[in-house]
């Protein structure tokens, strides 16, 4: 990254969204000395393993949660099947809340 | 009339309220919620642990770093301790700067320091809060090490050529904090007043502290 | 504790090597010469930790100071501008030339 050509520094700042802070919190909890489920250096490696395209296609915390998920799968902390089912559950719950919201 | 306490709520209590209930969640937002819920179900951490970390994240801001800098400006012995062990010096002021060692680098009439992490986005979060977007941007991380003076100029910081610009690329388990020079015209001000001149950006080194002239 | 291989002030060069995998020495500094500014101490080897290994094998970390023109021959600013970088000992080699 250092020394590569790039345009002006865009001094934009956004408020961190709750899901971004939660992603940060997940990492802090997993990497705390007490739990040591993963190391920060493993996260850096896992982000690199997402490939060069990930830097352009995903935003910062998207890369984090993608890399954290891959590490948890590699380590057997969670399984692909569990994650698939839970993601479907989360989606369904959110869609139901949206429907209730639209109904007033 | 609205009643903030007694209103009936249609949602069941749940630790993870969607960010924007009207919008569909993105794939990565779904992934985050699913991962967090699975980790809680498996007992890796609890919802309370999560809440405490989120509170801790929200409690940190550049005001913490500014307190440290202002104290160093008024107390030379504190400054010596800050330069020797920043984490311990911050603890004297009741600020838990964590276990990753923070090195303070001092600006002088001869040297101007500025911090970057070309590796990722290492940042003294426990003294400054979460980093601004630009600090994590490709442009800042690529260019600061190559053309620091041009980047500083984009932040409005023009430094004479006789000053050494010293870029710190943070690539190990160390964090850096810039101790800016106390602005002229602040003689006699107390610590709390001085802290108002200490901005986040001057502790990263891309700007100088506010000036009393405005 | 291992004895640091390089003292403060030693002229060093960041090794020019391009292995695949998680590498901690910044790409743009490989092959560049500088001088040891400070010995930070021992830290876990990030290139092992990145793969979930290596907690027991600390490496000495140095802060190495380089002159900008020694990194970028066409550096636009004054020649006394510098860069200080954290480097793990396995990425350093002795350099005969004078450092900054």
Keywords:
heterotrimer; A: 104 residues; mainly alpha; Cyclin A, domain 1; 5 helices; globular; B: 214 residues; alpha/beta; Nitrile Hydratase, Chain A; 2 domains; two-stranded parallel sheet; two-stranded parallel ribbon; 11 helices; disordered N terminus
Short description:
The complex is a heterotrimer of chains A (104), B (214) and C (100). By secondary structure, chain A is mainly α. Helix content of chain A is 66%, strand content 0%.
The overall average pLDDT of chain B, rounded, is 91
From the alpha carbons, calculate the radius of gyration of chain B and give it in angstroms.
21 Å
* Count of individual helical segments of chain A: 5
Strand content of chain B: 5-15%
CATH homologous superfamily assignment of the largest domain in chain B: Nitrile hydratase alpha /Thiocyanate hydrolase gamma
Give the termini distance of chain B in whole angstroms. 45 Å
How many DSSP E strands of chain A? Answer: 0
Structure characterization notes:
The complex is a heterotrimer of chains A (104), B (214) and C (100). Helices cover 66% and strands 0% of the residues of chain A. Chain A has 5 helices and no strands. The mean pLDDT of chain A is 93. Helices cover 41% and strands 10% of the residues of chain B. Chain B contains 11 helices and 4 strands, in the order αααααββααααββαα. Chain C is mainly beta and 100 residues long. Chain C has one domain: SH3 type barrels (Roll). In chain C, 8% of the residues lie in helices and 36% in strands. Chain C is built from 2 helices and 5 strands, in the order E-E-H-E-H-E-E. Chain C has a 5-stranded antiparallel beta sheet with strand order 4-3-2-1-5. The N and C termini of chain C lie far apart (28 Å). Classes of the chains: A mainly alpha (104), B alpha/beta (214), C mainly beta (100). Chains in contact: A-B, A-C, B-C.
